[in-house]
Amino acid sequence: MQNLLTISAYTPDFYQHVLDLSAYLDKQRKLKPLDGASILFCFEKPSLRTKLATEVAVNQLGGSVIHITPEEFLGGKILHAPQDAEVPGLPEEREALQDTVKNVSQWCDGIFARVYKHETLQKLAQWSDIPVISGLCNDHHPMQAIADLYTIHESFRSDKPLTITFVGDANNVAFSLIEIGLLFGHKMQFAGPMPCYWNRDQLAHFAALGSRYGGSFTHGSDPLPLVRQSDVVYTDSFVSMGQEHQYAEKLRHFAGYQVNEALFSKAPSHARFMHCLPAHRGLEVTDAVMDHSNSLVYQQAKNRMVTAKGVFAVLCNAEYRTEAPVQAAAALPTL
């Protein structure tokens, strides 16, 4: 059984197989590798693309989706007692997570969870007898990274390494994007303010990935010199979900990091713009860049559905696996 919690858990061969299979399954709509399968969806965070694109993918592959609330599946608080009541000995959780996961494993064929803490996904994987696939956590967003790599390769159609620059926050999207880019030998760059930067362990992790797979990682606080040599300029919201209380503070840090027409014009004329969405037009990016002829934002969104097909087929149907995908990169520590 396989799970997908982080990008660096697998080798490039795994992801190349997923990408190739995604394109194939999207064209061969008659194939139903999830025929009769039931996939449980549980979302602690709101979602449009992750939820809808993945549900469409599962449906097109012949599977069905069952939505369940975090209160029902992830333990939840005791809801039947008055909120202000003091009940000695009353458990805080409705049910142990271990028990709910073991129950779900008897009925379903996969779990797709979008949560706050990475530890929640790790506990699900620890106790589950079926594949657990991350729909996002505070530290990682592997499904987004796979779709982004598919979009980049689809757009450039080149075997040569590309220069991909992320401008903004050192967040989950940036982390997984840098990981998958390094796995495929691309030159990954990051520009962001020091208060919202990578820590020492994360920087060491990127260096290890680059050394092992041939990619490189350059980082700094000034986006201009990095954008000048970029094939792709990528940004994301400056304030991630759950950080709304830091809104004013983070906007102060990100003054000067907006991807606007002045900054994007410094990139080569062939450079593409990417954003995982939702975008806050006028904050991290301007309308002129979002709607630019070189913008790939809606292509990225479409490919969330395309690559979900490859991921779920490989993880939830053994017939669609090869020897290469099951070789986890065990020798490399995973953050």
From TrEMBL:
Cite the Pfam families for this sequence.
OTCace, OTCace_N
If you read the UniProt record, what top EC class would you report for this enzyme, in one word? transferase
Q: Ranges for the Aspartate/ornithine carbamoyltransferase carbamoyl-P binding domain?
A: 3-154
Q: Where is the Aspartate/ornithine carbamoyltransferase Asp/Orn-binding domain?
A: 162-314
Q: Which SUPFAM superfamilies match?
A: Aspartate/ornithine carbamoyltransferase
Q: Which EC number(s) does UniProt give?
A: 2.1.3.3
Gene Ontology BP term (one): L-arginine biosynthetic process via ornithine
Name the family.
Belongs to the aspartate/ornithine carbamoyltransferase superfamily. OTCase family.
What's this protein's name?
Answer: ornithine carbamoyltransferase
According to its UniProt entry, this protein's organism is Cyclonatronum proteinivorum
